[in-house]
């Protein structure tokens, strides 16, 4: 069984999932995200530009003299990124290279100002991840500034040294940028990794189309597929394409994430199929305030008192046969559960005997929040828990009386169970080491929007 599950997950990573080609999630990365990347990217770019310069052949004497050249320091004073419509991202970087030329009799130190420009295309990869590729890259050099002690250098030698260094940097700087981008692509590949939802369930995200790029944002249409025991949870074919309106969310947010109704339906279907929403409610027989005993039931159902002259413990077996229904309205999310509750009593031989069963309908308010990379929920009961008798082995049951009794012992354990379950959360689209910060959640008709900052931790 375990081997079959692993095979199913492997195939899910390699193959598109049938019936899951429509986006259930839209992720917009806004200008504020580019500003953050610019700030965080200066140090890695500085390290990447600290390249090796081969020896300079000094032709000023009668014999060619190889002279060692070393980059002592690189300072990126400016790094700017901006979106390019229908293409990707443009990079502008201004850097100062401090370079030492180990000439004889005294070394030469100079500072070479450089401007680096590059265009990077953002596309959809073959496995459903964003892929960035450098399409053009070039550099502009200003004249080198000779530091103190090097003013005696011959102008012709300085020209030749600069020419040598520029030729090397012109090639190696763009190669360094390409290498950084390749490292970024490896990181972006973790978007499609399976994230656990429960002990036997996972969620996987992947892009379903090319990104939409404007001057203000890049939008990724992403589908979420939930797995139970290695098999995908597939909604009916009438699932609709989700598009995220604009403007939406908080102005100035780094990321705007739209979650469709279908995603919530899939998550609830997963919980129902996994049996996670089922529960047993029991009470302690020797507790003074325990209402789950045959003696308490016998006060309102005479047949229970006749069959159980001695008090025996009672168990409520809550089983959800139908899928819960989440409804998203503006500023309001609700959840409706309709479980079957079977009431059983312990007989003298320790076996449980079914007394009666109830069809239950409960409406819940659903409050959503985000913690790091997970969407979490908490619930509270709206109105009364509705009960109707489905079957009875103990004769007539007064619904009003049983409503008051069972409603009291059912509501709190149900909320505790649901809130513990929803508090575990479902992973949002993310890559390794990236998390959401200061998120705000907005509920709209048919979808949910998360506006958030981002934080990357090395």
TrEMBL record:
Ubl conjugation as UniProt keyword: no
Q: Which domain of life is it from?
A: Eukaryota
An MF annotation (GO) of this entry: lipid binding
The record's listing under PANTHER family reads: BPI FOLD-CONTAINING FAMILY B MEMBER 2 (PTHR46019:SF1), BPI FOLD-CONTAINING FAMILY B MEMBER 4-RELATED (PTHR46019)
Q: What does the UniProt keyword field contain?
A: Signal
> Which InterPro entries is this protein grouped with?
Bactericidal_perm-incr_a/b_dom (IPR017943), BPI_fold-BPI/LBP (IPR051660), Lipid-bd_serum_glycop_C (IPR001124), Lipid-bd_serum_glycop_N (IPR017942)
Note one Pfam family from the annotation: LBP_BPI_CETP
- Similarity-based family: Belongs to the BPI/LBP/Plunc superfamily. BPI/LBP family.
Family annotation (SMART domains): BPI2
Q: Kindly give the SUPFAM superfamilies that the UniProt entry links to this protein.
A: Bactericidal permeability-increasing protein, BPI
Q: What is this protein called?
A: BPI fold containing family B member 2
Q: Which residues are in the Lipid-binding serum glycoprotein C-terminal domain?
A: 249-452
Q: Which residues form the signal peptide?
A: 1-20
